[in-house]
């Protein structure tokens, strides 16, 4: 079966063609991603209206490029999947309408994919991981710990009560005058800094719940930067703040993941994997902390390659194939969803700006 996947929920216009081969190394036939980072950089964050217009302008050529790269024609497609939410609604509409048009014209099934399910199932595209597994989802918009029981069966153990971790990287980078997106910039600067020179808090560390909080850490960075600015903020200071921030983030995420691993193992004694997904999974310090946390919990850490951790069309096409195998196709009347929690029954985490 051959699936076209379209991703337009944030600041990447992406399309990919994926087949359901048994060998994971030959599944991805093409994977084309056009980032809008340059368009959003002057604003230090994603501007929804700019994103929507850019998706509309580029989606056709990105889909064509994915088809050409895969050396398939529209007649070869068995189905077409698009991110149906959650995300910036203007962009989601662009992807969903493109997929519906192809499905209608070719008379093939259309599949609306939850963007978070795309991230969650990527480990099965690359590593054939069996259900259930523990998932740490760390991206620009989400920070969650979930048990993945099946293609459409998720139990949320923890979430952020305020900012997402990627957002904390991006906002802290902005405070430090670094570029956008902030995660890679902070990682680069941190490599030259000394985390021990500056102390930052570890919000939520040691709590019984599996929740996260990052807004206090971001405020602590702001206070620290203001103090340092009074003495003249040097390149060295920026590197030290980055190293300390990155260490604090990795420390709390590893701590929360250890807590979630206890809950996961209690519910699923045979469960074997901790899977990490989302753009922040590219961070090498975080990976090192998680490697230790996973092995202490008796779990194997699975991290897909960086290009499949950040937003892409292959994860949407793969989730589409998984849904197709379960008969979970969508109606052409499907309405794009700005919010779409993976676990609609999860208890509210508490806190002012709770993100589902
Ligand atoms: O999953 P993703 O591509 O988009 C969303 O769905 O949000 O994640 C983007 C986020 C951004 O906040 C970016 O700063 C962060 O991932 N990121 C990183 C790294 N690379 C990307 N954060 C920390 N370290 C990195 N190396
Ligand atoms: Zn994402």
Short key terms for the protein model shown above:
356 residues; alpha/beta; 5-stranded mixed sheet; 11 helices; 18% strand; binds 5'-O-[(R)-(carboxyoxy)(hydroxy)phosphoryl]adenosine; binds zinc ion
Describe what you observe in this structure:
This protein is an alpha/beta fold and 356 residues long. It is globular and about 65 Å long. Strands 3-2-1-4-5 form a five-stranded mixed β-sheet, sandwiched between helices. Strands 8-7-6-9-10 form a five-stranded mixed β-sheet, with helices on both faces. Helix 5 packs parallel to helix 7. Bound molecules: 5'-O-[(R)-(carboxyoxy)(hydroxy)phosphoryl]adenosine and zinc ion (ZN). 5'-O-[(R)-(carboxyoxy)(hydroxy)phosphoryl]adenosine binds next to helix 5 and helix 6.
Which helices and strands, and how do they pair?
Blueprint: E1 2-7, E2 12-19, E3 28-35, H1 37-40, H2 48-70, E4 79-85, H3 89-106, E5 110-114, H4 115-127, E6 133-138, E7 143-150, E8 153-159, H5 165-175, H6 182-190, H7 215-230, H8 235-267, E9 273-277, H9 284-296, E10 300-302, H10 306-309, H11 313-325
Parallel strand pairs: 1-4, 4-5, 6-9, 9-10
Antiparallel strand pairs: 1-2, 2-3, 6-7, 7-8
Bound molecules: 5'-O-[(R)-(carboxyoxy)(hydroxy)phosphoryl]adenosine (KG4) and zinc ion.
The portion of residues forming beta strands comes to 15-25%
Structural class: alpha/beta
Stretches where pLDDT is under 50 for at least 5 consecutive residues are none
Number of strands: 10
H/E element sequence:
EEEHHEHEHEEEHHHHEHEHH
- Major beta sheet, strand line-up: 3-2-1-4-5
């Amino acid at each position: 079966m051959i699936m076209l996947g379209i991703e337009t929920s944030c600041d990447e216009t992406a399309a990919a063609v994926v087949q359901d081969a048994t060998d994971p190394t030959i599944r991805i036939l093409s994977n084309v991603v056009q980032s809008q980072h340059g368009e959003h950089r002057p604003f230090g964050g994603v501007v929804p209206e700019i994103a929507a217009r850019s998706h509309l302008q580029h989606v056709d050529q990105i889909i064509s490029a994915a088809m050409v790269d895969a050396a398939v024609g529209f007649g070869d497609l068995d189905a077409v999947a698009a991110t149906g939410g959650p995300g910036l609604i203007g962009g989601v509409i662009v992807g969903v309408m493109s997929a519906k048009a192809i499905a209608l014209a070719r008379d093939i099934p259309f599949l609306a994919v939850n963007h978070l399910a795309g991230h969650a199932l990527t480990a099965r595209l690359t590593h054939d991981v069996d259900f259930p597994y523990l998932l740490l989802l760390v991206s620009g918009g989400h920070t969650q710990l979930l048990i993945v029981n099946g293609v459409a069966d998720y139990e949320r153990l923890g979430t952020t009560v305020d900012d997402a971790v990627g957002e904390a990287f991006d906002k802290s980078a902005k405070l430090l005058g670094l570029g956008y997106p902030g995660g890679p910039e902070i990682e680069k600067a941190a490599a030259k800094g000394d985390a021990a020179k500056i102390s930052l808090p570890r919000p939520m560390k040691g709590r019984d719940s599996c929740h996260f909080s990052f807004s206090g850490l971001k405020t602590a960075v702001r206070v620290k930067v203001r103090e340092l600015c009074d003495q003249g903020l040097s390149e060295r200071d920026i590197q030290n703040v980055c190293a300390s921030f990155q260490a604090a983030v990795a420390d709390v995420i590893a701590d929360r993941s250890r807590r979630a691993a206890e809950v996961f193992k209690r519910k699923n004694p045979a469960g074997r994997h901790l899977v990490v997904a989302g753009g922040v999974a590219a961070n090498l310090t975080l990976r090192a902390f998680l490697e230790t946390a996973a092995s202490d919990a008796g779990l194997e850490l699975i991290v897909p390659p960086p290009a499949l951790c950040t937003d892409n069309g292959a994860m949407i096409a793969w989730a589409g194939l998984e849904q197709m195998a379960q008969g979970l196709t969508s109606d052409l009347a499907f309405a794009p969803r700005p919010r779409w929690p993976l676990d609609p029954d999860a208890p509210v985490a508490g806190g002012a700006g709770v993100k589902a």
